[in-house]
Design goal:
The complex is a heterodimer of chains A (303) and B (122).
Chain A: H1 8-15, E1 47-52, H2 67-79, E2 87-91, H3 101-115, E3 123-126, H4 129-132, H5 138-144, E4 149-153, E5 156-160, H6 173-184, E6 192-195, H7 214-221, E7 227-231, E8 238-242, E9 245-249, E10 282-287, E11 293-298
Parallel strand pairs in A: 1-2, 2-3, 5-6, 6-7, 7-9
Antiparallel strand pairs in A: 1-10, 4-5, 8-9, 10-11
Helix pairs in contact in A: 6-7
Chain B: E1 2-5, H1 10-16, E2 33-40, E3 43-45, E4 48-52, E5 57-63, E6 68-72, E7 77-81, E8 87-91, E9 97-102, E10 115-121
The chains are: A alpha/beta (303), B mainly beta (122).
């Protein structure tokens, strides 16, 4: 991972924004030990993709009084990027949960209509517990298809894992068997990116920030040398290694949550009218040939 | 009726060797602390469970509406609370402190607020 390289200029130029534009890098220089994350094969094309997470469409409440426009504004921001990403991933909690099955379908459909306004047409979705835990992913699958799947892009194998449609927050034996079968087909050096909602490792179990059987998935992935996990759920950046696997959570697009264990309850951070977008954002992930991934974090407005 | 044994105290349970009477549930030991806990969206009652150090505890968990979970990571306790069933958790508190528990089965908007504490005192 190229966290410590002060080489922002090339990525900003890649985005067509230039240094001093609306893009900024987060303080990733403090993240150590990520040097063993995947490298793209030499000769493969450079590309970048965006990760948007936890949009919680349908949420209403004091933690974000502007929830009806936050996602729409983000779509406009992304569309304004001069050089568009190859694709965009949405790492779960597309919508805020509701007990009403019709309302759930309505929110998912509205979310789908909003993100269809993105210039980028290659959109990759995954479910969060708010989308899929109350009906085992039934409504989600009607609109967005499979809960777990793979795709390949310019030399990188992407694996989407579902750890939310089972309300206990587990991957389950069937999906783990599917994962094992998929990995068995790959060379151990194959760069792999895992996209999921919950952390696969026990980040903070007292807040349910874990995956019940995530250790089994990590054990399978650990057999491969170049694995990186991007996930959501915790509404903030977090970077951690388990063995040689790097795990990176993204900020949300609805409200930030406190750092793990920093306060007694995992309640949303208070919204401030003077800083309505504080703690919100999305990220760009730059896969450069022969180099490690580069992560850049973007706000959705003045902090 | 479902029994859930905490690994940490399995040895104690086995040592007691209390035979089942009138079913498959061992009779509670005389000095056990029996505490009934009900769950419903999005709260436990009681939400603060007071227990004594080194005195065996039996939690009887039941739900008033739907499937819920009960997990105390720091005490390695975990159970599902199914409608129509009473789930029992036995353990022996072996350290003083306050230990958070939460519902680990997503149960709707407010799930994140479904929490409580086990308070262990002398």
């Amino acid at each position: 991972m190229d966290f410590k390289t002060p080489d922002r200029r090339s990525f900003l130029q890649l985005l067509g924004l230039g240094v001093g534009g609306v893009v900024f890098s987060s303080g990733l220089g403090g993240v150590a030990g990520c040097a063993s994350t995947p490298r793209k094969p030499d000769g493969a094309d450079d590309f970048y993709f965006l990760q948007l997470s936890d949009t919680h469409w349908g949420f209403k409440g004091p933690p974000n009084p502007e929830a009806d426009v936050t996602l729409k504004n983000t779509v406009s921001l992304v569309n304004a990027i001069q050089r568009q990403p190859d694709f965009i991933v949405f790492t779960g909690d597309l919508t805020h949960t509701t007990d009403d099955a019709d309302e759930r379908r309505k929110r998912l459909a509205e979310f789908n209509q909003i993100v269809k306004q993105l210039k980028v047409t290659d959109l990759r979705f995954m479910a969060g517990e708010h989308d899929a835990s109350l009906d085992a992913g039934a409504a989600y699958q009607e609109l967005f298809g499979q809960l777990h799947y793979t795709f390949d892009h310019k030399g990188i194998h992407f694996i989407v894992l579902d750890n939310v449609s089972d309300p206990v927050g587990a991957i389950g034996t069937n999906q783990l068997a599917w994962l094992r079968s998929d990995l068995d087909k790959l060379d151990v050096e194959q760069p792999i990116v895992v996209l999921t909602h919950r952390p696969l490792f026990p980040l903070y179990p007292s807040w349910d920030w874990t995956t019940k059987d995530g250790d089994e998935a990590i054990a399978l992935l650990q057999n491969h040398r170049n694995v990186t996990v991007f996930y959501g759920h915790i509404h903030q950046e977090h970077h951690q290694m388990t063995g040689r696997i790097a795990h990176h959570s993204a900020r949300s697009l609805i409200f930030p949550l406190p750092a793990p264990g920093s306060v007694p309850k995992r309640a949303p951070l208070a919204w401030e009218a003077a800083h309505p977008n504080r703690g919100l954002g999305y990220r760009g992930i730059d896969a450069q040939a022969g180099r490690d991934f580069r992560i850049d974090e973007y706000p959705i407005g003045p902090a | 009726m479902k029994m859930v044994f905490a690994r940490a105290v399995l040895g104690v349970i086995l040592m007691l060797g209390v035979p089942a009477r009138g079913g498959d549930v061992p009779a509670p030991a005389a000095q056990e602390q029996l505490i009934k806990v009900t769950a419903k969206r999005f709260e436990y009652s009681p939400s603060v469970i007071q227990v004594k150090l080194n005195v065996p505890v039996v939690l009887e968990l039941s739900t008033l509406d739907r499937l819920h979970g009960f997990e105390v990571p720091e005490l390695a306790l975990r159970a599902e609370i199914k409608p129509g069933e009473v789930t029992k958790i036995r353990f022996v508190p072996d350290k003083i402190g306050t230990f958070a528990f939460h519902c680990n089965v997503f149960c709707g908007s407010g799930h994140e607020d479904m929490t409580g504490q086990i308070v262990v005192t002398k």
